[in-house]
Amino acid sequence: MVKINRKSYPFLIITFLYFLLGFVNILFAYLAVACMIIPFVMVSRTGKKPWCSTYCPRADFLSLFRIFKSSRKAPAWLNSDNTRKLVFQFFCINLFFIVMSTFMVSRGQMEPIEYVRFLIAFTIPVDLPQIWAGPALPPWAVHLAYRFYSIMFTSTVLGVVLASLYKPRTWCAVCPVNTLSTAMIRQITVSEGNE
Ligand code: SF4
């Protein structure tokens, strides 16, 4: 489980801003890439999870759900290795679809999907207004931006549902970033042990 070392929640605003900026221009959805790279750079440099313990904006956001004062423990199956693996595999499949569909859009083999989806398949029936026209992007870049927004939306909704039912950071137990960080740390520990 991730150790929490927060005295305040300064990064909370970033989660709100991220989703709001999607209404301004979908280009801002690319900020998600930082959340997909920085945690692993930190793990490789420190052998620990400073992203999870200190910097993750989503963790700050989910901590807001303390207001429900729910102390219900998540069921054992939710914290199991099998569930962790399943969630991780789902996000890998999601990434695979993102890469393949972006490639196909870039080749003109499919139309860009310019709306948000939940869990890959379910379309959210809300158009993001795009208040700022922004720079002209090729169709594949617009498609990819919506896909990043969708992946962040999906994981945030899942986190919120779990935080509402159980403890605020229940999502962290199955978060793919946590799963991969743990695997990296194990690998680092094994390599250091072999030296
Ligand atoms: S486990 Fe995921 S949601 Fe939780 S702090 Fe780490 S990166 Fe953020």
UniProtKB/TrEMBL annotation:
Domain 4Fe-4S ferredoxin-type: 29-63, 156-182
Short name of one Pfam family: Fer4_5
Ranges that cross the membrane: 12-41, 86-103, 115-132, 144-166
UniProt cross-references to InterPro entries, sorted A to Z: 4Fe4S_Fe-S-bd (IPR017896)
Keywords: Membrane, Transmembrane, Transmembrane helix
Protein name per the record: Polyferredoxin
Organism from which the protein derives: Spirochaeta isovalerica
